[in-house]
What we know:
Elements: H1 4-14, H2 24-37, H3 45-58, H4 60-65, H5 69-93, H6 99-123, H7 127-149, H8 163-182, E1 188-189, E2 192-193, H9 194-226
Antiparallel strand pairs: 1-2
Amino acid sequence: MLSRDEYLVAWSRWHGGTDPAESRLVRGWLSLAYALAVPLARLSPLVATALGLLVALAAIAPAAAGGAWLIAAGVLIGLSGLLDSLDGALAIAGGRASRRGFVLDSAVDRLTEVGYALAFWVAGAPGLLAAAFGALCWLPDYLRARAGQAGVHETGAVSVWERPSRVAMAALGLGGAGVVSLIDVDVTAWGADAVELSVSAAAAVGCLLGVIGTAQLGVQLRRALAD
């Protein structure tokens, strides 16, 4: 099993030279995943990958139930994100990383983000807003993949809309709306109650971060592709 610092260096190699030290959120997230991986070193990364997808999809049901159940949806989304990072930590730190596993993990990440968008939708966010949230989760990694096919081997600096940010936005947005449902607040606007407004606001903030993060990445890739 690699040490934490060795794991972070290896993670950087697998992610186009991205330095996790550039973002406290990303570095902290990866460090947490490594801490969880150490006692679970014998667990197959594929098991963690599958569990992460199942847990993400399981969040849709409590999101649809609404009210205080939204707290459970937020917890499940946060757990799915940890499982996703855990599989990478198990593979890389345990010396079991492979190109096949890397591609599979990326595909599962995109599927879990579909689950996050669906959770926002069934919880009360407008369909177009939820779809935009999901699309902006996909777009940065799609751009990186296409740039890689064009010969760009470095993904650039960490943006504000990396995988941990997406997970945190979905988890805190839905979980926070669940907390709002427990508070005796009578707020209505545009035909929506306080919980729906909270869910929609979280999805909107996520979209804003997605636009900013994609713009940051676009500038970096434009420079790389111009070389």
